[in-house]
Specification:
It is a single chain. This protein is α/β, with parallel strands linked by helices. It has one domain: Rossmann fold (3-Layer(aba) Sandwich). It has six helices and eleven strands. The strands form three sheets. Strands 1-11-6-3-2 form a five-stranded parallel beta sheet. Strands 7-4-5-8 form a four-stranded mixed beta sheet. The protein has a two-stranded antiparallel sheet with strand order 9-10. β9 and β10 form a beta hairpin. It is globular and about 65 Å long.
Length: 205
């Protein structure tokens, strides 16, 4: 009877160590010709248009009172039991996430109200900085999502957007554009399949 030899990872580790210790100089980044990048006469109008095409809805508001009024007119918000607001100065929440350590406890959140750093007219996306998120899952696990972002923090294209990001403030950040959607099954578009059912964006001054 052959005696089994214990598995060893010595050779594999040696290869990985050599790869880790090898310095590879990659090609430089291309030079961006900013005058050739897409620009819009009215980036706010373009953002609203593009967001609509991907299933989101934008609202131009002047103050927090208007945000509260618009949300209160939405039945699924008026009837919501668990609302997490990361913009408490604009919208009060009913759930204090500071008291929650386990993200699984957020599985029944109805609404998340998040803060956007800036928006992109080109594709209707909003950059949400991870440093503003106590639990990153809040953007994806809530039934409905609202994002508050200043229209003065609106850029024309993604090149400008990535220049705004620079070195991220935290290990996590994400562009959000429209509600969750999929058309994998019979090529029928379904909203809210894997995340929020609707996205409301409030463009403040």
């Amino acid at each position: 009877m052959l005696k089994k030899t214990p598995a060893t990872t010595t050779s594999r580790q040696a290869v990985l160590d050599r790869l880790t210790g090898k310095q590879v100089i990659g090609p430089g980044l291309p030079t961006i010709e900013h005058d050739r990048m897409v620009h819009f006469d009215d980036p706010v109008e373009k953002f609203i248009e593009v967001l609509s095409t991907v299933g989101g809805q934008a609202h131009l508001v002047d103050d927090a009172q208007q945000i509260a009024q618009i949300l209160s007119d939405i039945p699924v918000y008026a009837n919501a039991k668990r609302v997490v607001s990361l913009v408490p100065e604009a919208i009060p929440g009913s759930l204090d996430v500071a008291t929650i350590d386990d993200p699984h406890a957020l599985a029944s959140v109805d609404w998340t109200i998040a803060k956007g750093e800036f928006a992109v007219a080109e594709n209707g996306a909003i950059w949400v900085e991870g440093a503003t998120m106590p639990h990153r899952v809040l953007l994806f696990i809530a039934q409905y999502l609202a994002i508050v972002v200043s229209r003065s923090d609106l850029v024309h294209n993604l090149h400008e957007g990535y220049a705004r990001i620079g070195t991220p403030k935290s290990p996590f950040g994400v562009f959000v554009s429209g509600p969750s959607k999929t058309a994998d099954i019979e090529q029928s578009l379904v909203l809210g399949a894997h995340g929020c059912r609707t996205l409301q964006v409030f463009l403040t001054p």
